[in-house]
Each structure stands twice: as C-alpha cells, then as structure tokens.
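Quick start: read one record
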Amino acid sequence: MATKTTEKKAPPAKTAAVKKPAGAKPNALQQPLQPSPELAEIVGKAPLARGEVVSKVWEYIKKHDLQNPADKREILADDKLKKVFGKDKCTMFEMNKFLAQHLK
C-alpha cells in the first residue's frame, strides 16, 4: 500500500511593490480635498485626503470625549460637529456621509 507524503507548500513569494509613474494621479482616497469652513474648524483649512480628514475628526471626537459611553458607535455632536453633521448625534457609519458633503 502506497503512503501519501504530506509536503508543506512554501508560502507564496512576496511581490515587489508596484511603482507608479511619476505623473500618476492619486486615487480617490488620496486626492487632497478642500474642507468646508464648518469642517475646517475641526481639521484645519489645508486640503487633506479623505483618510486624513476622518483621522482628524476621530482625534477631535476622542479628545473632546464625544462618543456615547453606552454605545461607542454613536457620536454626540458638540457645536462644531453639529454644523458638519446637521444633527445632535450620528453613528460612526453615518459620519463619512456627512463628511463627504463638506469636502470638495
């Protein structure tokens, strides 16, 4: 009776990072966008990529303790965030929808 040998396969080799041509456009998430005056009060006036805007808004939320203690997914807006969100509270999933309205 023939026995099967269990050979472990080597992990796939890592491929080198693909370099973009010098004149390549950044993708949509990396494209710097101008925040509205309301959003600029939180993240600053300089153009930022969407990811940077979200990070800065989360820094602001945590610094000012604006997460609902009973449900950390909910953000309780202060006066500055009310101008951006248009309401007193929103979920972290809704937040990106409101931020997109304030970026051009």
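The two ends are 71 Å apart (CA to CA).
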